[in-house]
Fold this protein.
Amino acid sequence: MKKLLLLGGSRFLLPVIREAKALGCHTITCDYLPDNIAHRYSDEYHNVSITDREAVLALAEELQVDGVMSFACDPGVVTAAYVAEKLGLPNVGPYESVAILQDKGRFRAFLRDNGFRVPEARCYEEKAAALNAAEALRYPVIVKPVDSAGSKGVSRVGAMDELASAIDGALSFSRCGRFIIEDYIEQRGFSSDTDCFSVDGELCFVSFNNQYFDRRANNPYAPDGYTWPAVMPAEVQEELRSELQRLLRLLKMGTSVYNIETRQGTDGKAYIMEVSPRGGGNRLSEMLEYCTGKKLVQNAVRAAVGLPVERFENPGYRGHWSIVILHAEQNGTFRELRIADDAKDSVVERDLWVERGDPVEAFSGANKAVGTLVMNWPSEEERDRRMADVSAWARVVTEEDADE
């Protein structure tokens, strides 16, 4: 029986555990939070911090695991690559390459140095140094930690007097105490944040989607929905495919699922924003199985333990899909999820993570979500109309909300 060590314990690991068990694997989860939901479903749990790579390495050696994986869990990606490289286990790519991809400052520098189109960005450790350069910035800019995910600590700064508080916010979410300030690339249409897959460095499955945000939320840069297929022009998608493939070759990446963020700017140019060798949060790989029939989660598990993988083709989409990230508009106590009658026929899956009486928090990042809705719409027009105003047909209601 293959042993698979999974770093982290969030609910986004549940489909990984299901697929691993279906393949006959023994699943082991580890982190420093024993109450995390994934530990209830794995075969074995160990209380070891996933950011302590030497402790995870010692655990993997002791348990004699066949693979290590960090899926939809950004803090564990570098640790997983380190452990896999040290033990000669299947790996997504060289440890140094993974370290570059997972550090936003190093990644921006790598893109720039290798001729990729990239927003102007500077990396800082000291707040004072960034403030000293504040007058030279071309506002608006984006301030974010170099090592966080889920839009935590990300701010758009429109003027110099907003910079100091944005830096404080970024540093509060940075484990290594570094942040970047980069030009804000306004997207044309929608940005894309979805999952892709490579086999032996060949990017055989490349998807794009339409990413939505709740501009009324505490963090207007936390995604609250996605739709497939993308409206991004075909020629822009093709350019991004080519550049993503060039990037993976330069980094000598291997077989992996990736969470990839891209966009077309209002200047008409294509930009690679983020590439992480892991499954994305918000159930993106699961959604792609709905949309295309391709089993990205299963393929990622197979790769992690050295089983044969499927060499996917680029996706063909089976309908007009969306996932809604359910969240509360304010702090309160959950009462119910209201879905309009005329939208119920399009609901494929309703996954609610709270019960009546549970506390909920205003939406500031993926960790504040309370569930998801998977939708299959009868047409692209219906999909786009509905997703433009989700609160008109799907709403998380708290006890503090006025009765309607």
